[in-house]
């Protein structure tokens, strides 16, 4: 099983069901008239599966790398999709024809060569398209892809391309400086190789497609063979590449190349140091000295590369500062122009002075008018005003004093009521305490009386028991005495009874 087929069977829902899989591999072209929904469902399932497989980097390609933004249609793709039970898919030409008609896939040659955006649509069909439509209705021509074999061509997957472009623009949205918008081709690949998949990088062919799409269809950048320049958020359109932009891109590439040489040199120094120590330990002095010479050479090279990197970083920082200064000066120029226009609109300093003089004059005129109107009105007796004012003040003072007196009386009544309430509470508490003490004394007296009664009962019981015992003894003694008397009488009777002869 190929990597592509294993991916589809594992991750695509439409390919997990055996019944649906059989329908996808069958010749479903006749469903266009019999079951249009089933036909379009199969076509859409194939287009989604192929786009997802391309984004994952499992579509077969001629080289070792796999394009993520385009699909190589042809015999190799068909063979990679061969299933041991269902065989080869028979409707791939229909799938690709439908994708091209809806501009979901675009032939690579047309995509790169066209100056017209892929989003442009024409409301008026061409005469050839009208003729083809009429012939298909008459049954002379079949639907696109129905009688065709699968052509060998590269097709750009527009859905994957839009995802990659949106990720790039998102990461380039907030630059710290204007020169951060300038990249080289190598820098673009380093930064955005994994925007679609962390394990499958974009190829050089993918980057070519991506740049063309961002330039023509998104109008987000301009580029040439040496530099790429993204549009600033303040610019209506991308600015053309200048010599300064090419120099910045070259500087970034050089700095990246020098910095990439530093880690291997550091590892070489560490390895040589460890080897020299091992050779000294094993008494291999010649090899130890040779290894130390290599270490010194690596250290010298590392120092040189570090110095160069620092110098290049200093130059880059100066370029950033210069670019920021250019932006500041441009903003100041624009502000000066705007301020000049506003000053011209108000008429300058002389115009403002004239306006202020006119305003002061109009204020003086208004004051004169008010004074004239007041003079012509009835005169007011200021004495009456003062008397009425004093009467109002007196009434207000009396009102305040009355309110204060009423407030004090109310407070005193409330305080007296509070004191009476507190005394009542104290008396109630004292009464309750006395009742509790009396109850306790009563309970104590009852308890003592009960205890005394119980003691008296016990003494009485003891006395009764003694009397009972004494009576029993007396009765026993009497019984004994009676028995003795009876015996004595019986003995006497025996003595008096004559014996027979």
UniProtKB/TrEMBL annotation:
<feature type="compositionally biased region" description="Basic and acidic residues">
    <location>
        <begin position="424"/>
        <end position="469"/>
    </location>
</feature>
<dbReference type="GO" id="GO:0009898">
    <property type="term" value="C:cytoplasmic side of plasma membrane"/>
</dbReference>
<dbReference type="GO" id="GO:0032511">
    <property type="term" value="P:late endosome to vacuole transport via multivesicular body sorting pathway"/>
</dbReference>
<feature type="compositionally biased region" description="Basic and acidic residues">
    <location>
        <begin position="394"/>
        <end position="411"/>
    </location>
</feature>
<dbReference type="GO" id="GO:0005771">
    <property type="term" value="C:multivesicular body"/>
</dbReference>
<dbReference type="GO" id="GO:0000815">
    <property type="term" value="C:ESCRT III complex"/>
</dbReference>
<dbReference type="GO" id="GO:0006900">
    <property type="term" value="P:vesicle budding from membrane"/>
</dbReference>
<dbReference type="InterPro" id="IPR005024">
    <property type="entry name" value="Snf7_fam"/>
</dbReference>
<feature type="region of interest" description="Disordered">
    <location>
        <begin position="394"/>
        <end position="501"/>
    </location>
</feature>
<dbReference type="Pfam" id="PF25880">
    <property type="entry name" value="WHD_CHMP7_1st"/>
</dbReference>
<protein>
    <submittedName>
        <fullName>Uncharacterized protein</fullName>
    </submittedName>
</protein>
<dbReference type="Pfam" id="PF03357">
    <property type="entry name" value="Snf7"/>
</dbReference>
<feature type="compositionally biased region" description="Polar residues">
    <location>
        <begin position="470"/>
        <end position="480"/>
    </location>
</feature>
